[in-house]
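Pasting as-is:
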Amino acid sequence: MATSSDLDVLIDMGFERVRSELAVKKSGGLQGALEWLEQTQDKSLEEITAAASSSTTGVQGDDDPNAEPPSLKDGEIAHSLVCNDCGKRLRSEAQAQFHASKTEHTNFAESTEEITPLSEEEKKARLEELRQRLKEKRGEMSEQDKQDKKKNEEIRRKSTKETQDIKEDLQKKEQIKEAAAKRREKQEEIAAKERIKAKIAADKEQRRLKAEKEKAQRDGRTIPTISTSASAPTTSGPVLSKPASAYTETRMRLQTSAGNVQRSFPVETTLFEVAAALSAESGIEVQSFVQNYPKKIFDQVDFGATLKELGLFPSASLIVR
């Protein structure tokens, strides 16, 4: 089947465009076009086009591809075959079969015209020319393949780099998230340990106070009671007039729902002991202490610390909750 590349090959070989177009149109391929051009080389372009135009008006010419060849007369011998589909003349039945396999043409007829075979020199020249054209065509295809391969490689490299950049960005984000999660877990672990330590200290102090209370009851001794006083300091923060190490006691003003209670405690007394003493005296279950200034809440976590450690000396005012 003829293609546009066959037309380009014919033009490159030096044939006129119009003549080349007619050759490609009338033949089934490049080889057929070359044979048609060879057969019509002695005819002018006007004669060829006139024959082609006459076929459109019903006049059948020698070059009309659709023209039916005349029937053989009595005594005439067929010297060749002609394809009624494209007008190509063939020397033998084997060539007709080959032509049919290539073009799928099936309408053939016998002809008395004898096709002059090519000389050895003409065959070699035409074969060499076709080989040269084929080599050039393959060279062009090879160069195009190289360019296509280079472009594909550039596209692949660009795609690979973009994919690698995306992977690296995702890995960095994942590493940042993992580091943040580890820091958060570590902070939570530290806080949990501190709460456990405070709870252990508070339980230990509670057991100590309970043991002292039971021992005092067995010995017939009384537990120290909390006494009330009319005078109380108005400041809730420490008022230091001497070094902190010199203070051994702290005066505390405790504001309860039943009224204000003032009591002095050693600075080494824990907040849990203060809550236990207040609970034993007034029956109040202390959940937390609140300091107004500076504003601070002392809950169960702080009960294991001493008044000195909490800065509640030499005096302090707390609201009992």
